[in-house]
Amino acid sequence: MNGAETLVKTFLAGGVDVCFANPGTSEMHFVAALDTHPEMRCILSLFEGGVTGAADGYFRMTGKPAATLLHLAPGFGNGYANVHNARKGHSGMINVVGEHADYHLRYDAPLKGDIEGVTRSVSDWVRVSMDARSVAPDGAEAIRAAQARNGQIATLVLPANTAWEEADGPAAPLAPVKLHRPRPDQIAGAAEALTAPGAALFVGGAALHGPLAQLAGRISARTGCRLMADLFVSRIERGAGAVDIECLHYPVLENVEILRDVKHMVFVGAGQPVAFFAYPDRPSTPEAPDCRMLPLCTPQMDIAWTLEALAEAVGAGEAAPRLIDRLPSEAPNPSAPLTPDCVGEALAAVMPEGAIIVNEAVTAGAALLGPLRQAARHDLFYNPGGAIGASLPLAVGAAVACPERKVIAPNGDGSAMYTLQSLWTMAREELDICVLIFANRGYQILRGELANVGVTEVGRNAERMFNVEGPELDWVALARGHGVEAVRVEETGALINALAGAMAKRGPFLIEIACGQP
Amino acid sequence: MNGAETLVKTFLAGGVDVCFANPGTSEMHFVAALDTHPEMRCILSLFEGGVTGAADGYFRMTGKPAATLLHLAPGFGNGYANVHNARKGHSGMINVVGEHADYHLRYDAPLKGDIEGVTRSVSDWVRVSMDARSVAPDGAEAIRAAQARNGQIATLVLPANTAWEEADGPAAPLAPVKLHRPRPDQIAGAAEALTAPGAALFVGGAALHGPLAQLAGRISARTGCRLMADLFVSRIERGAGAVDIECLHYPVLENVEILRDVKHMVFVGAGQPVAFFAYPDRPSTPEAPDCRMLPLCTPQMDIAWTLEALAEAVGAGEAAPRLIDRLPSEAPNPSAPLTPDCVGEALAAVMPEGAIIVNEAVTAGAALLGPLRQAARHDLFYNPGGAIGASLPLAVGAAVACPERKVIAPNGDGSAMYTLQSLWTMAREELDICVLIFANRGYQILRGELANVGVTEVGRNAERMFNVEGPELDWVALARGHGVEAVRVEETGALINALAGAMAKRGPFLIEIACGQP
Q1: Whose CA is closest to A41, among A27, A56, A61, A21?
Q2: 3-state SS string over B352-412?
């Protein structure tokens, strides 16, 4: 049994049974090993950003790391941005990166690069296997690392000869790394702070959905504190019946306003809120100057235990969390102008229970949130790493993880272009994903950002870096080119029909929405 | 004048007047500065791999570095693979990477990453500007670094505040770094070796085209040595009238055969040839065991001086280099089966003088080389870094550099998918590029590589990682989606017509060629 085979068997024994892949020659023994293990689901992406983003989306829904298969330093480079996003969102993944055979490394072969440099710059754990017998134990450690601290980036670099040389056999799963917990006095202090006037419980990670969101909601109900979260979270449960968590906005000055009266912030599963970017004469962080910050439980610590201890300390008991009401959803008037708000209303009216919304409509996306808030219960993904080009790959991963749920991916025409190759994987795997493209013909966000830096007149060089007109992108053609059915709508009535059709069918579908700004 | 403005002025003063860009918020002051300097040509790519690959192609044709504009660590990550390729081909470029304002870095903002880690892993020179007044001198040093040693990757990281804060003014260009030269005794030794039986002059870099190729050809004619080069070179002049340089092949065992009788190899502008990958039981390098290797002048040294010294030492005088003859090009029979050879013949028949061929047809491309060898004189790009996804961006850069020359980019359907967004830039800039897609429906190269590792039966997991069928990519739709006119041909007659049409018109055009293997 060679090293590659022992790794596949180790992964399967450790519960890692999905592999998003874009392999090359140096991974051929791994491909051969996968080939004899059909119980490992292999999903091809035609670009590595699609691979790593899919692993992120898969983790967000399952809490389980997937493996990725990447080709040397440049292949990892192509996946870099979505590894960054996954890391910022505390998703676990195991990157298997093929390297040249160790004895070949002293030559300057074309694909030789600083594989340790590039992988270390965005991984929590990196290991280069030293020989074939190390591959299986290294693989077991990679699984443990990817699951540690609520999810980490584990990267295992396999020189080709360690894959093809003879090894001993697979390695058994390792005991998981124990999560850190706050001290009892910290729990008591936080509990006291939460009952003070102007208190907020600021949550993240697993506290944003399911039973832990309920628990956080009970603590808030019992103490009267505000229950808050960042805007750019990995996954949050929303819609009718979800715990009502107040989210920050994108502009830092709006967040300053939102947090003006907050005097005690207790953090569980989240770090301190921070401005997405710094601007001249604007603050880097939005909290009030006299706000007391209590970092009780970082995103890497034991969120469940902390919330339970906090609930007990405040006597939350069976206090009822504040839930989002169902707003009777009504489709917009078919003759209303086609704006992003209108898209939100139309979507809210037809969206099925349990949908997964992967939001990367950078400017238009904000307008969706109001209408969607009180639609049917759903999970909402944001991009905690901020590198655009995450949505289509995330949608792939979420759909692989939850084949019974509808995935909806609102995108800007600018952002979707970064990883449009994921459309092909949606078609290949027949994933139940509805992609919405807000065709606003440019990087609208940057127009606002240029104004933020004080430029009000836009000349040719700037204009040509913001708009994606001349030529216009034709998303119906792009989708069809990848094997995905698509339609373009220019009026609200057509949008309502297209959305109804998309919700009624299974499989990938793309709607290009010709709409202006909110 | 702020830091960003001083940088733009410093670049223009230093002859850097093209900027390939995919900016974000942290680069807005730089965008504003570019906006007031229309003499800097700004070219937008919708994906960063398109940015960095274009800078590479631009350098290959001009010998001048372009600037790139990239957005933080993930933006650089997206451009990583083509920076790698450029570095392996010794192309110079100046990457300007926006970073968070320095005082904002202590917060964990979404886009904060290890920007020094990722940039250092693939750059020859990295500088993080410390304040606004350092930006201009750092920019002048970046230009010098990008031009040093025949071309390097220089990366300048600009914290946003160094761009917006007040600075002094632009910096004057710096004197270039002097190139190293071999010692006289090394020249004499090499000259002697070249006259021995079984000698080869193995050249690279600037010795592969123009007057230096002529000089190398004269040395070879005078001494009787073979004149050779690697296959994966950055740029080589070929076609009728070009100096006849014998190139190695891809499979290492074929190269062992080619080099069997070479007993003395003198290297000028090139390193030792090496197998693209290592395989069990195959050598890492192809030279004969008793071959004497003389590394006279590395790719980073003074190639022109070395060749002149060598020519003088061997008394090359006006010896006539062996040139490639013109083969009367004849289009294939329109009813012949549509194979890659046939595509090569059809292209050779219609290709205009001075075309630039950017070859990334991974498997089909080899078949083109025979027919093209004796076509009209042209420049041929290979990918010295081996990371696929270079061709379309390189074509953009070459077309920007040489607007009067036809650029032809043969691609595999697998390789072109990595950076297909460059099609849009071709349309936006009305670049005179003809893209050929060999639609062989998969990563054909990997089928061969799996066989190379001893696997003869391909199962479902492997098959689904090699083919890109189910669904088939529709390149005509993909091109049109990006605003590029396109046609699909399935027969030789149709191909001949399509190529004739493409050569007669200006502007981007894509031909999807449904053809089998050679």
Answers
A1: A21
A2: CCCEEEECECCCCHHHHHHHHHCCCCEEEECCCCCCCCCHHHHHHHHHHHCCCCCEEEEEE
The one-letter amino acid code at B365 reads G
Which value does ipTM take for this structure? 0.96
> How many angstroms separate the CA atoms of B405 and B412, rounded?
23
3-state secondary structure of B442: strand
Contacts of B77 in chain A (CB under 8 A): 77, 80-81, 84, 122, 387
Q: Name which of B78, B112, B363, B474 to mutate to probe chain A: the one with the most chain A Cβ atoms within 10 A of its Cβ.
A: B78
**Torsion angle, CA of B227/B232/B238/B243, rounded to 10 degrees?**
-20
Q: How far is CA A69 from the centre of its chain?
A: 19
**Chain segment A397-411, per-residue pLDDT in tens:** 999 999 999 999 999
With bands split at pLDDT 50, 70 and 90, how would you rate the model's confidence at B518? very low
What are the structure tokens assigned to A400, written together?
């692989």
Count other Cβ atoms within 10 Å, centred on residue B505. 12
> DSSP secondary-structure letter at A439?
-
Cα distance between residue B53 and residue B35, in whole Å:
23
Cα(A298)–Cα(A149) distance, integer angstroms: 10
What are the structural domains of chain B?
3-164 (3.40.50.970), 184-314 (3.40.50.1220), 340-513 (3.40.50.970)
For B509, the token pair is 């055009």
Name residue A437's beta-bridge partners. Answer: A411, A512
Query: Which residues in chain B have their CB less than 8 angstroms from residue A392's CB?
Result: none
Establish how many alpha carbons lie within 13 A of residue B372's alpha carbon, considering only the half-sphere containing its beta carbon: 28
Q: Which helix (H) or strand (E) holds B61?
A: helix B48-62
Chain segment B374-422, per-residue pLDDT in tens: 899 999 999 999 999 999 999 999 999 999 999 999 999 889 999 999 9
* Amino acid, res. A274: V
